[in-house]
Design goal:
Blueprint: H1 5-8, E1 49-51, E2 68-73, E3 75-80, E4 84-104, E5 114-121, E6 131-133, E7 156-157, E8 161-174, E9 213-218, H2 255-258, H3 275-282, E10 294-295, H4 300-311, H5 317-321, E11 331-332, H6 334-337, E12 356-361, H7 373-387, E13 397-399, E14 405-407, E15 429-434, H8 445-460, E16 469-473, E17 485-489, E18 491-493, H9 494-497, H10 505-508, H11 511-521
Parallel strand pairs: 12-15, 12-18, 13-15
Antiparallel strand pairs: 1-2, 2-9, 3-4, 4-7, 4-8, 4-9, 5-6, 5-8, 10-11, 13-14, 16-17
């Protein structure tokens, strides 16, 4: 197995750290919090800036733009002889948020360090234990030299971490785990970061990226009448066309994930649609009416008829007689999960066809309920566009642990939309992210089945066999140089195209099962 960046990249920190005083898009530093004698962070004023992008210009469109982002510059907390500065934030009260990530100026620079956070639950006031944030995430981005990467807006970042509704946060950035934790770090954050901003006389500049800040994302509330994702997926019509996927060994009991209660029936969205919302919805007009919150599943026969309608002029007689395509699964649209279409770039970008699917995990943690999945996706979307500077959410599709499938990047689920998910291999591919972290946690069988169903349909639209390999040309990355032709499995993991731990070892091991199930759904 190819090496994992998080464990293979060494780090040497200097004796001190100098940080820019005003990183791009960052707010003023939050005031230093005080701590009670018992070690409980006392409330402080929140002075972080609320970023709303172009949506703020739509005066009168609705009372308030859903969601917001708070940006807090990280500061040196202490200095230690051997390993250099430790960066972070002491405990502080902030406006309510549910998702966080650390962002820095240059997307080509890796974070050679360890990020840990703890947060305070808004409902109880209790602080969590320290949690690690996945630091290698930029590889989920646009290809080098693409217009999206070269826009000047892109930034480096950790993976987003879902923490639930919280109103307090503390952060620390440490050397690589194998370098040991600095002795001078206060384990409960009782030290002060006042005056510790680096600058002249602070010693050598650390190898940590410049302009590091913590972004706290409020994904916003669903608009009135919004569907939370529809009913939990059931057996789809037409499954007799291929072998019924069986539970993997040890997956017969799925615990809390499999026991997630079914959601209520879909409720149509109401209200006036903006021009951007109409455009995103119209991209699926060949499949559903304008404004639909969900694309319904089809039987195998209905899917074949749809394929002929969508691709008829490009199909051979044999393909028209018996196309290999899985039944179309139900898909929650962007309108269904509540996308604020003002956050993305207006135009859609397409590639010529879809020859392969790359499977990812979001590395955002597993402490979410399936009813919260639309909120997580709204959080990812805002994080990708406002914090990382991408044109839209990076993934083409997302799958929650209950097996629901969601439309990702705008442009139409049946069309070859170019995403920003596998740096170097975004052309002629589609990116599917399973929501959660699957390095040590096994994905649910429902999620695995959903990925198989989705790939059977999506790849079938382009005549691709899930059990075969295909040739892709690298756009540049840390495994394959730009222009190199690579034989890749039609269903691959992110780590097949880039030296990364994604999609997590446990999910990666399921891809063989995904390939065989997808081929079965296609009738192969």
């Amino acid at each position: 197995m190819r090496g994992i960046l998080a464990s293979s990249i060494g780090v040497t920190c200097a004796a001190a750290l100098a940080l820019p005083l005003a990183p791009p898009a960052a707010a003023s530093a939050a005031s230093v919090s005080s701590v009670s004698s018992a070690g409980t962070p006392a409330p402080v004023a929140d002075v972080a800036t609320r970023t709303v992008g172009t949506a703020g210009a739509r005066a009168g469109a609705r009372a308030e733009v859903p969601g917001s982002t708070q940006s807090l510059p990280l500061r040196p907390l202490t200095r230690e002889r051997a390993s250099g500065a430790v960066l972070g934030l002491t405990p502080r009260t902030v406006r309510t948020f549910s998702l966080l990530g650390v962002v820095w100026d240059d997307p080509s620079v890796d974070l050679h360090g360890r990020v840990q956070v703890r947060t305070r639950a808004a409902s109880t006031g209790d602080w969590t234990d320290w949690q690690d944030v996945e630091t290698h995430y930029t590889q989920h981005g646009a290809d080098p030299d693409s217009s999206e990467a070269a826009s000047g807006k892109a930034r480096g970042a950790t993976a987003p971490l879902w923490v639930g509704e919280s109103d307090g946060v503390e952060v620390r950035v440490l050397p690589e785990p194998d370098a040991g934790e600095p002795e001078d770090v206060d384990p409960v954050g009782t030290g002060s970061d006042e005056g510790a901003s680096g600058g002249e006389g602070a010693g050598e500049v650390s190898t940590l990226p410049a302009g590091m800040r913590l972004d706290l994302v409020d994904p916003g509330e669903a608009e009135p009448g919004e569907s939370a994702g529809g009913a939990e997926p059931q057996a789809e019509p037409g499954e007799s066309e291929g072998p019924e996927p069986q539970a993997e060994p040890g997956e017969s009991a799925e615990g809390a994930e499999g026991a997630e209660p079914a959601e209520g029936a879909e409720v149509p969205r109401t209200g006036v649609m903006t021009a951007a919302a109409k455009a995103a919805s119209a991209a699926n007009s060949a499949l559903v009416p304008l404004g639909a919150t969900q694309i319904p599943s089809l039987t195998a026969e209905e899917t074949r008829e749809e394929l002929v309608a969508l691709r008829g002029t490009g199909l051979t007689e044999q393909q028209q007689a018996k196309p290999y395509i899985g039944p179309r699964p139900s898909i929650v649209t962007r309108r269904g999960w509540g996308a604020d279409e003002s956050l993305r770039e207006k135009s859609f970008v397409y590639t010529s066809k879809v020859k392969a699917a790359f499977v990812h995990h979001t590395a955002s943690g597993n402490s979410y309920s399936c009813s919260q999945a639309p909120s997580l996706i709204r959080g990812f979307y805002r994080y990708h566009t406002k914090s990382l500077g991408w044109r839209d959410i990076g993934y083409n599709f997302l799958v929650d642990k209950c097996g629901r499938i969601y439309e990702g990047r705008a442009g139409g689920v049946a069309k070859p939309v170019k995403g920003a998910h596998t740096m170097g291999f975004n052309s002629k591919t589609t990116g599917i992210a399973v929501i959660g972290s699957y390095g040590s946690k096994k994905p649910s069988s429902k999620a695995v089945k959903a990925v198989a169903r989705l790939t059977a349909w999506k790849l079938g639209l382009h005549g691709m066999n899930p059990k075969k390999k295909t040739s892709l040309t690298s756009g540049g990355g840390n495994l394959y140089a730009k222009g190199k032709k690579v034989k890749m499995k039609v269903i691959s993991g992110h780590r097949d195209g880039f030296n990364t731990s994604c999609p997590g070892g446990k999910l990666f091991k399921k891809l063989g099962s995904v390939r065989s199930k997808a081929a079965g759904y296609q009738g192969r």
